[in-house]
């Protein structure tokens, strides 16, 4: 008989337990990704903290390798000598070892042959070498473990710091933070730093080390704290106040975690490079301290501007964005005494008269001067329905803080140095009652840019590096833009597409904040419009560049033939000059063969006048000058070169004029000089925007 199934026991989990068990939801997938996400969360907190007090961010990021032996010393664990080697993952039998070594020898032989065939340093040899290095690592027992090491991660900022008493809850309680309001911030969920702490707890067991000071504080808070995952509560190991003699403000947060620098190094550096693009007013100093110093890395991203965008402002909930629960929460928390005042005070775009009209519409005994706390369940439901049915004005978007076209352009120029760049900032748009702005930059060329469309995504000025395939920005750039219409070759041009979305609500898919879904139609349209705005500007630049290139090529081609043409013409002229009296055939050939005979010869030899720009012929005619060696092949070549040069300038000018006319603006040089009493002026030309006085001379 089958055993009787036991009813599943009821278990309750704290939010900390939930996220510890499902850490991939928050971007903590594997040790390498955990190292990356830890840095990301701490850097974004640092930027938010500096910008919140209008301070130009200066952020130091340090990753320090911690060997297992050192970690054990820190944790007070004694050195462990193995008793039974066979128990361990990295144990290898003699036979397996022999097999592995034989295989490695065979592969080395193949590499030798490739070097003989293609040469040392060739693409083929290098590819094989890489393959061997990867295979050698993976083939050894226990390899899966070996890439992962332990790292002490420290991020220090010059931001707002944290109030002493709030630090344990801010950093030791999952889902607690100061960024839940309707405001554009990099952080949102009150989760990131705590996830890093949970990861640290799961892998090294070491606590958070925090030093923080608020502006003008005479002391620095020093905490060593941990999180009780079961209770979702901070566990404080050390709490002290240190003196702050130099008035420093900011925070320094340290964690020791397991990670994999080797596999996520490129992501970490790419992330920093991209955050430097969108935040050129910030300064980042990144140090990787390896146990073996020759593997250490330092990368600095200097501040390129002191112009910081206006900080985002806290705004009110838009009526169409609230759900039933939120309305109840607002009703419970409000200080407003009347329902009309409640609507006016708690919601965006609701003034006194609109609030009164909404109350009127609620009917069923609801009065404007009743206390909002007296609304019963049915009345609240009615209010919720009305807030979603009534047409309210759109949020203004003034509370948002886009990077700005200036910063975006500067950042791209600084990091990529492209040949061409265009930027565009879209209008404020709205989805689900939240304002958003999309900005874009599209660049062509530059250093380290691969051929094709290279998409860089930003949300609330955070670079998004993962899950690009599903993101609204990637999908729009790759599928919804007809690049060839803008003279851009999608496959071969080195195109950088930078799109930044800022909003009080970014529709991220998941708490890891890695990508924005492609299902918000308003966002799809705004992203497309922003990219197209850049492309339109680029198109005219590209067409101008193509015309200039073609012109250069034309000039090069013409110039190439000048020596041959000059020699050919000159040899004809020489013959004509030497045999002018009787060589009708030669003269006919030299004149193109369409006119022959003595009269035509006379016209040619006597010349048809002087060229308008001081040509080759003088009053005696060309042939006597040739006969006297006053005109040589070199003279002809030099005159032809001048002509090609002049045609080039004329064409360029004509092109410029046409371009100007095409763009609806005729261009002419304008000279400005200060007027003095000595200047006499004659007639005046009045236009809609200015008066032009024509100078007639000095008095
Ligand atoms: N470097 C810092 N300076 C000042 N305050 C900080 C700093 N780091 C964290 N905080 C405070 O701690 C809170 C919690 O941070 P945490 O990273 O856990 O979540 P968050 O940034 O609010 O949201 P998210 O999970 O989306 O990143 C923040 O809201 C902020 O108030």
Automatic annotation (TrEMBL):
The keyword Lipid metabolism does not apply. Residues 88-118 form a coiled coil. CDD domains: TopoIIB_Trans. Its EC number is 5.6.2.2. It is found in: Nucleus. Its main location: nucleus. Keywords: ATP-binding, Coiled coil, DNA-binding, Isomerase, Nucleotide-binding, Nucleus, Topoisomerase. PANTHER family: DNA TOPOISOMERASE 6 SUBUNIT B (PTHR48444:SF1). This is DNA topoisomerase 6 subunit B.
